[in-house]
Amino acid sequence: MVDTPPGETYAEIAARHGRAETTVRNQWARHPEWPKPLSRKRGKFLLFDPAAVDRFVAAHVDRPAAELEPRRLYSAREIENLTGITAATIRADRSKGRWPAPDDESSRAHRWYGATITKALVGRRAYRKSDETTDRT
After folding, report:
1. From its phi and psi, is residue 123 left (phi > 0), alpha (psi between -120 and 50) or beta?
2. CATH 1.10.1660 occupies which residues in the chain?
3. Per-residue pLDDT tens over the stretch 37-86
4. pLDDT band at 134 (very low <50, low <70, confident <90, very high)
5. Cα–Cα distance between 93 and 121 in angstroms, integer?
6. CATH class of the 65-137 domain in this structure
7. Closest CA relative to residue 65, chosen from 112, 111, 18, 122
8. Which of 9, 80, 112, 126 shows the greatest Cβ crowding within 10 Å of its Cβ?
């Protein structure tokens, strides 16, 4: 019987988190806080500590659920503060059909109901580079 070294490859990390291997390798692993590989390999594949990967995912990938009042109107800046999705990302996603039209356009700042925002966030993946940079979603 072959003794398999503990640790996870990029492919195993991707499978466990329900993401593409290219996302893990080309986005997550390029982040400065991505865990260092373990000192051993499995064949030619780098291995990573699953607990360290989970800490990284919790800190930089998982989007915390925003507590939004369903009938309250929120501006893009308020959405940014509550969800981490920047106002610029909202504008870009609106132009690409990935974010709903505002529920209220009566003022200069367009606004969305909390229920509309919650619906738009369902299934949306997050990737936060760091607190100093913008959100790429």
Report:
1. left
2. 65-137
3. 999 999 999 999 999 999 998 887 776 667 889 999 999 999 888 887 88
4. very low
5. 12
6. mainly alpha
7. 122
8. 112
